[in-house]
Fold these 3 entries.
Entry 1:
Amino acid sequence: MLSAMSPEALAYPFLFLAIFFESFLIVTLLSAPARGARARRPASSDAALPAVAVVVPCWNEERTIAGTVESLVALDYPKEKLSVILVDDGSTDGTAAAMSRFEGHPQVSVIHKENGGKHTALNAGIAATNADIVGCLDADSFVEPDALRELVPCFAEPRVAAVTAAMSVHRPANLLQHMQNAEYTFGIAFRHAVASVNGLYVTPGPFSFYRRAVLEELGGFRHGYQTEDMEMALRIQRAGYGIENAPRARVYTKAPSTIPQLIRQRARWTSGFLRNVLGEYRGLIGARRHGALGVLILPLALAAIAGSVLLFFFMLFTLMRGVLAAIEMRAGIPLSYALAPHGSFDWFYFPASGYLVLGAAAVLASLSLIILGKRLSKTPGNLAVGLVSYTFLYGFIAPLWLLRATVDVALGKRRGWR
Amino acid sequence: MPLVTRNVLIALLVTAALVGTVAYAVDYLNRARVAELSAIEDQISIDTLSLDTQFSLLEAAPCDSAASSTALTGELADLGGRLAYAESQLGSDNAQVVRLKQQYSLLEIRDYLITKQLAAACGTKPVIVLYFYSNAGDCGDCDKAGYALSYLRSTYPSLRVYSFDYRLALGALQTFITLNKVKDALPAFVIDGKASYGFTSLAALEERFPKGALTGAVTTSTTPGL
């Protein structure tokens, strides 16, 4: 039983929200719209396929651009209906030279321009094509050959303005990348469930596609606080269109390999989210006409940021208090006794507080969604290391970028891309 | 009903059911803890009565039953550890915890008296510490003192430590405190009949024991009854 003043009491509302949202995702995955989306078959008739252009904005991507383009030209799609537009956004490394390899390729065109930011590169690429469907692919990402055929049928409904893919980490090597792979796989389940109730608020850089007419109507990409994909998705939602998801359209992206890189990347995403949602798109929050996005997804996303930071401080406080009390209590006692375990395992001493059990339930639900994400996207590979690292690392690292982003937004601080 | 609304309601029901189940399970476990404490307490009550009876029966040769007293002290220490954990989980003001602590304190006092009687009859000098603490938040050094005593009890197995919550509302305990002249300055120790107060370090605590008493306690533990 908790005493009334226990700091644990602060954690309960957020644990409740976390479990509620995970339950909502699972229930929504089992509902008819998501089942229908999973039953959607990939496009088989070449004649009915629309013309598609994929824009690849590049800024200093000399190491990965060739692999990205090779995966695109290897897509199982009629060659006369698929074009690839590489946009060199004023790279200062060997990106231009790497691109020149593809200049003679019949499906590939290359644009060089002065550096102006990712949104300007995307707009330049879109302006260079007349294709009905325009996609983008970050220059550090790679697609499966059948990804585009999985994706295109989602545009059959006229209300659909954009379609997102199923992202995973490309060849995770260390624990941090395995952790991100598990998180991305959670994202597959999340995106699939939320798309079925039109609640997506981001069309990620790796392999999201747009109806060209809608992009023109809305005025192309904007800076969007360095999250042009989020800003565009929010603009599409505000205009009343739908954003779909193709859970078996698999794309792999490079993930940061160090904690500072990861924090920098995620702080950029989170601060972009906060600046967009609390700024120009504040009207979406709580708006019933925007359905699940307005009344559920955006409010819960904001609560998740606040809750994660709060839970992190609570966890840190509890841990530090326990460690300091243990050190203080053991001061002057011989280490042979102070460090040795005492007693044997006894159920009587099992620390079953409501906080711990509910926390474990929330983690278990997350792991279930990760496994669901892997199964419904048919993503290959072993997730065991990812599940372990996600369970034990994510809760300690994620609050760091959430905190940094929150502080940046509160202080009006802007940071560079990398 | 719109799909989102329906799914939200189902998710709320699932979450409420899960939270309710967890709350019930935690409460069940806590009740099981209390039940186990009660069972141990009942056993020790029987042991105490048994010891009393043995002592009465063997008045002619009381030292033959000394080993029984040592066994009871071990059980008391185990019960004390469980009771302290239950108190940390259920709260100091929990009625069941308070009742169990009252019973536990009575058992301790009874065991202390028997130990003293046996010592007088057998001519031994067991090293006994009466330790008075408080969980009311007014004793900053009580945790450290309790841990140091645990270390001493582990190092010197024949050392008898009896712990009492100074604030516990129990007539017998208050009489015991008065008889031992223990002031309200916690943590308080009564070692070899002398009261001392406060805790600074393990070394300082050890100095309060009569010279050679702790090392001698090891000897008495190997030859109980002498």
Entry 2:
Amino acid sequence: MIVCGVDIGSLSTKAVLMEKGRPLAWRIVPTGPDSVESAQRAVAAVLAEAGLTRADIGYTVATGYGRANLPFADKAITEISCHAAGSHWSFPEVRTILDMGGQDCKAIRCDGNGRVKNFLMNDKCAAGTGRYLERVADSLGLALEDIGPLSLQERGEVLTVGSNCVVFAEGDIIRLQRQGKRPLDILAGATDAIVERIVELLERVGVEPQLCISGGVAKNLGVVRRVEHKLGLEAHIAPEPQIVGALGAALLAPV
Amino acid sequence: MSSMNKPGLAYLKNEMASCERRIKKISENPDPSKPKSNVLLYELEMDLRREQIEAYESGKPLGITGLGPLTRALGMVPWDAIMAADRTHGTAATEYFAQVRKLGMPDHTCDRCSILVPMILNGDFPKPSFLFTSNFECLPVFLAHNLLAEYLQIPKFNIDRPFNNYKGDMDEDRLQYVTDQIKEMVEYVEAKVPGCKYDEDRMIELLEYDRQYLQIFQELWKLKAAIPCPLSGRESFREIRLSNMYPDPAKAIKYMRLYVDEVGERVEKGLGAAQPEEKLRLLWSVAGPFYDDPFSWLEQRGVAIPAAEMTVYNGWFSGREPIWGDPWNGRQLSPLEEEARQFDFVWGRLGGDWVNTHLHSCRDLHLDGIIYFLQWGCPVSNNLGRVVAMEAEKQLGIPTLLVEGRMLESSIYDREDFFTKLEDFLGVCTAWKENRS
Amino acid sequence: MKSNSNMEDQLRVLLQANQPANRASWAAVAKEQGQKVLGLLCIYVPEEIVAAAGVLPWRITGSWEESTPHASFYRPEMTCRYCSHVLESVLAGELDFLDGVATTQVDDDFKRLWDVLSYVGKPPFAHIMYLPHTVSRTTLAMWNKSVLDLVPVMEDFAGVKIGEQDILKQIEIYNEMRSLLYSVYQMRKKTNPPLTGAEMLSLTTAARVMPKPEFNQRLESLLPYLETRQPELKGNQSRLLLCGEYLDNPEYVRVVENSGALVVMDELDTGSKYFMGMVDASQGDALGQLAERYMNRPGLSRMGDWRGQAEQIISWVKEYDVQGVVELRQLYSLPLDYRAFYLGNLLQEAGIPYLTLNREYHPSHMGMLSTRVEAFVEMIQ
């Protein structure tokens, strides 16, 4: 049976097709104002990619914030369980998962079967999420995809940027810019700050090797290296870290 | 975090070193604008820290039982953990807050109570041998002490102060009630904390010291009323310990005598802290951004802060609340009754007294306004700021600035914004003052 | 035998009683009949004494709207949200029918709410009783005095004399309410309980806005029907115990239950903690027994005995066959915030899964809550 996993996130919607535990195809489309329409688009795209039709799909699992409202889904499962399943499929030895998307950040502990043992999500504000990094990049006039490597360049001065709240962090950045500090040093400080929050969350959930990082932020090398350094662990990164949730959703479909 | 041999001493050793540095600085290069008696104050602080370190190293009990002399009379060395937490601000506090969050505790409660927990769990602070909780301090202290006691299995006793329903007074029944609980606490401590035995003679001796100490303080209250005010804002905000806290209370009294005489000299010479001349006098209520120095900033703009209103002490200083040894209901109280009476302070009472203590301070000290700091996580003070402001305006015609912020943790502090508010407020105070005259 | 649909209609009256549109209607009837209405905030004021004075005790549910413009004049954002929403309702004039309010100083927020209510003089009468925070022989004796003092206060308030018979009669009525609610709670132990957690909360909050005789009569006539009522189970629903102090909005329970769970027990001031514990006045000393009951009953969250509370939760977990504990801590209400760390450790030792989350008082961030609860339910299933 061909199964489909759909992950409807706040920024992008991901669809994965699987057959007998093997992925056939995957697609990422931007999430529009209508989450159902976005999911339909993602599924249509992945079907086109695989050369299949809707009738070929035997079971669909939805995840992500729009999971509950998807009429063609057979089941809805949270991102947390899906990320655990997806990460475990990619790296069976993984016990701790960090998933950082645009809107939230999750720390998940799982067992040897990819089942969730404990989890924590950051609350309410954007500190510790991808949006924080976007705002940092914006404030410094840098491209989002560049800030990871740039934050790892040699530092001039160690600067502290607030990590509790995006609004205050922006205030700090503006203040440091006004003081004529080097943008790269400010960037390094801001990256330190967000990593502090991430590591806090991970330590609260309890870190057990091995570690896997997924979600959009896994692409930011500056964050990844810092987390690794702080925890003294090397992190696995899924080849396509954004589709781990959709992959897990497909894996959790009954076979 | 602690690099010392036995965990729990890092903070105390730092404090000792800092007192030593200060004493050395004064002896080598005295600042004529600072009181000469400061040497004695730093010595007192050093004596206390030394005593606490020695007690902790030798396994002598360190206890927290409240403000009065009962701790020492029970054979414990007082351990002022909450007050010590107050001195941990700025980046150090931020680090502790990271730990608070790691423990899964909320980070929006009272700063001093939040960071107290990791400080003790980390071993940066000595673990107390005994903790008391009560409903007359405040909810966050009650809860933080409760958490430490329950989690670390420290013997704890709760004392409840009643109010005579909405009439608010202490009467014979209620005094007896608190005294009974104190007696139960004494039995409990003697049974649960090795090395503790209540010594009534010691209690009486210490009560007398506190009485003398507070009497000198009452002289200071009158001196603070002088125009210009002789005290700097920092001096007003200095954390008050009663003489019983120090290993040598007689030395504490000697210090207080010397200090008050010095302030008296300043008054005689017409010296004020506000520069170049005193234009406004303000009350600073409850807490403040301890990681910054708004007091010097105010002084440089001609603003004196004759009093900090923590609502605990000003009643004694102004003579409105009975001090140790004052008769009550026409009789002398026994030492444990005395302790019971002193557990009854404004912090634990209903709101009328809270408002009035502010107004009394403003009247006594001829103040032109109130800076009321709404400290995050402090329900007792936060939820009455507006009523204080309304009554200060109605009864005294003076304005109040209600300003929100954190006390120790500075990462969200917006200095520019804070001082803009202060500056605007000074304008308001000046205008109202002109209107009044 | 009445039809099921008729019974459902009867049940709906109770389940809708504390909804904003209905909750004041019984108070309005009481007022028309010349009865006074006293607003209550906490669960410690002995209602029997209030009712014995011929006054309707009426628990104040705060405004369920997000915005609290009137209250924020007095109370900064980061203080107990229940108290702020209560103050909002009072200042906005929604509770002008109240003749008075009575509370204990459960914590500093309640004490200061009382201060502000007395300061603004709304409602026109405000009483505060002293409540000890630990239970011992000494503190119980003082609590007894607090309870005794309430009698003349209520006599003055209502302009009546309260006799011992009046108190005994109310004790009987209140005990009846307690045992009726207790029987419904017993039914929660079934695999398929007759009421969902959201419905149960609606029922216990209904008890606090209706005259007790009417509530009792309505609930009693529904008991046989409830024995047979079987809502449709949605697959394998995990059985949860819910903690959360003054949670009074069933929307929050619904969010938890929409995540594939059933709330079968609670540690709520608005639920089990309100009614559990009977008054035994058979040996005389009615007021003393009353005082004893209001102090000594299961799971008093505002007191310092966290171990006792944890043990109570653990024993309920066994009794009600609970698979996990979900705690919805009201934002900026400190007691559960501090307890959570300790409780988490104890429940972990006992092998009981525990999820603790912050919530607002008004319905808010429901999507965020549901993701977390759903993941928790997926984890324990």
Entry 3:
Amino acid sequence: MTEFLVDSSWWVPVYGVLGAVVTLPWSTGLIRRAGSRPAAYLNIVMTVVALLHCVILWTDLWDLPALHVDIPWLKLFDLNLYFSIELSRVSLGAAVLITVLSLLAQFFALGYLEKDWALGRFYALMGFFEGAMTGIALSDSLFSSYALLEMLTLSTYLLVGFWYAQPLVVTAARDAFLTKRVGDLLMLMGVVALSAIAGTLDYAELTAWAETAELAPLTATLLGLALLAGPIGKCAQFPLNLWLDEAMEGPSPASILRNSVVVACGAYVLIRMQPILSLSPVVLTTLMVVGAITAIGASLVSIGQIDIKRALSHTTSAYLGLVFLAVGMQQDEVALMLLFAHALSKALLYMSVGSVTLTTSTQDLTEMGGLGSRMPATSLAFAIGSIAMVGMVPFGGFWAMQIWAERVTVGAPGLLLILLLVNGLTAFNLTRVFGLVFAGEPQAKTRRAPEAPWAICLPMVSLIVMCLLVPVMLLQWELLPSLASVRSPLSLAIIGSSVVGFGFGAFIYLNPAFEHPLGLGWKSMQDILAQDFRTDQLYRVTVVFAVRRGARLAAWFDRYVVDGMVNLIGVASIFGSESLKYTISGQSKHYLLTVVIGVILGIASLGWLF
Amino acid sequence: MLSILIWLPVLAGLAIACLPEAIMTPTRSRQVAMAIALVILGWTGYLLTQFDVQSAGLQFQESFDWIAPLGLSYRLGMDGLSLPLIAINSLLVYIALYCSDVNLIRPRLYYSLMMLLAAGVAGAFLAQNLLLFFLFYEVELIPLYLMIAIWGGSRRGYAATKFLIYTAISGALILAAFFGLALLSGSFSFDYEQLQNLELPMTTQLILLVTIVVGFGIKVPIVPLHTWLPDAHVQAPTPTSVLLAGVLLKLGTYGLLRFGLQLLPDAWRVIAPALAILAVVNVLYGSFVAIAQTDMKKMVAYSSVGHMGYVMLAAAAATPLSIAATIAQMISHGLISALLFLLVGVVYSKTGTRNVDVLQGLLNPERGLPLIGSLMIVSVMASAGIPGMIGFIAEFLVYRSSFPIFPVATLLCMLGTALTAVYFLNLINRSFFGRLPETFANLPAIYWKDRIPALIVVALVIAFGLQPGWIIRWSEPTSLALGTLGDRSTTTAFVEANPLTLPLSAPALVD
């Protein structure tokens, strides 16, 4: 049985894609009479199958060393491409996490998109999305990881553009695709170069190669930077971070996955590439700098947002910045643990937010308030998600941060400050959102808000339970440090920063006597944060400007210079023949004159020549 | 066996054109043409089963003496380079006939010209005598010129004349080079086999090769010889555009490989760096100009200019892997550009415009063109090199194989994939996303016959994308043979002895 499951492990990503393909008659509108529900059920069944497959493999292979399954794809001369699969605790665990969250998100979508006419298309895209992600989790070669990351880019584009009739959605989908594409392009350059230099794209062989490789420092740096660009785009790190913020125009069930596991996929690939990145210290430094800038910048920006989904999306970038820092310090295990804790709690937060936006039909924080008593399950989900995300004993976020603080800050104590800052600011921001949405006086749009329907509450409550169980899971996997370490100064600092963040937030936003400012005070500060430190203007004056100008210049050159020259030759030859035709007069004296002039000119030129 | 591919359509074309109107009604002529195209497609399928994939040499050879004093003989043969191109020609001719307007004017002339075009292209890919190749290369010009001039858009006269003049110059240059080769060979024979392995001085070789490159470069097209292409595409009717982009541009790159690389491999290696630079120019220039276009057809036409640059890049690298990549990219571009033109054709026939500034919200599920829009998204993504479709693996092979030879040029060419995404995403965002305006609220009904051709090509694009081995297996031995031609040491010696002749072979690009 196990052997069969191992041999068929390549089916895990295929299930999702198969679900998408089977749904095509509904998503393309061929079947209209039966409604789109069967499409949704089909995809949910496929996800359940994928989940079962992963879980059984995971439990069966738990105690075994990692297995490799190679599926040959294309062999051509010295190029040998295959899709290899790694079956290990980590990779299967990641696949289980993805399928569980995908299942919950799809269930959630049953309630969230109940009245949407394109339900079939949505589920097809979700199936595709899930397939690409589980593929990345199991992939054991950089080639297939890259290919799947590109597929993820495509499905992100289509999911963000799901409501394509709205103008903001149109630009958001385009920006998501192009921003990620910039990262993908640089990564492709890295992959091609690496394939030519190392002769293989298999992770294990690459790691072995990296140990003995003797590359020129410049080559190693350029290679590493190119490879780094892909995860920077995927994980929404500065300067490729704005797409995630804009992507919040898409449907909420997709946002659940996007903010929890999709960004994690980029980081996961980054972790797999770590041995190659380590070839150059410059690359590792860049990685750390990017992570640090994003962690602090995005934490600040999130406080300035008045859109409920965007306020949370920036914290995703910030946490992924912490993951980047961990990878930069070569602490892969820490990075994975933080990704795991973050994924669950962020998914829960987004479910809660999705439930709020569905019942209030708005995403604007200024229009909300007083939902706590009206939506108890939703507010509980938000509260648990917040606590699980920041460093509070004994929830998942705390343990991840505690290990982060212990291992990553070795030799670089300054990093601890970043962690505490991010943690404190996140705690403050979450309290801010909680206060604005769930506490205070009800407003026009929240006065009659009921609790979300069961199809939304069921996955939400399940996820609450899972979030609460994270410490138990960590204990089972023997990832928890000894209880004594809780009393260490590092832990106390983390808890302290959370408490300060929560406290400040509560003082401002949960205190009825206090008038609620939206952000941090000062108008100009507030503006610059709300506009993401004007990063979009940075794009506008650099890449967008260059491409637009280049295109106009090229088109002008093409039309007036290249084609103009061709037309000029055409016109000149017509003009020449038109004027020459007047020499054909039909009178012999004219011809004779022409001959005489010709002869004189001929003789004259001969005389001049010799 | 191979003659059937050429003479069956010629006979059918004659029959359609010459039989009296009473027998050959417009409907009948369409049926005959499609039946013949189907037979040809089937015959190509049969040839595929008979083809020996292990052999690098010519197969199914046919040979008759024709006009011996001129060195003209009727010699046909097929190898791993011509086979995929023949296959794509047979397929696209059928699809072009299928999507031709049923009610077009002068149907009998149209269908007989289509048949003649199919025969001419097949003949050019199969001919193993240089003069015979030239004849077919010119024959294919006549139907194309007439198709643009008769069934084209509002500026058809200008576009058709431009096309004719450019291609005639291309033909003249090629003929000159062929005569040069035949004269210098000593035996004055145009037979392909006798012209291989000529011992010529390098300077002579270079002169001949540059003539050949410019001649075929017009057809590819290489910037700045490309301006006939956008005009021809924009004015040509959809089926002609499909064939023009899908098959006829490949005559240029086929000619470069067959008569450039294979006949003059040493000289090819000398000018390869220059070709790589031209490829970069093609890719970047074509992509940038495409971004600024508002006419969908022009956008697709300029994207063709860009994507043919990849073929040039891999051809310049000339290693076994890169020749395989050249062939894969030719197939990939043939299918994807044909698909794009098919879809743009449907959009144009239903909405009456191709302007992306005017079109909007065509994905609308009730009153728009949702399935055509979805297929458009798929084809655009295939063109931008998203994995799972043939564009990705073809481009990956091009980059991977050219990188060791021309690292800088390859990296620059890769920018093209991102630029492709820019202009095609623009196309999708502007014309398919958004709200459907009232002006397009009552589009004519769309039938399955509008969708089926595109569906077939999409299926192929995805199938080959998932199993690229299916297109690459045919040409492995041929790629190996082509990629190992020539002696790299003579090339290096020549470049070192004449450092001023080729300033373009900068060390950064050839190391």
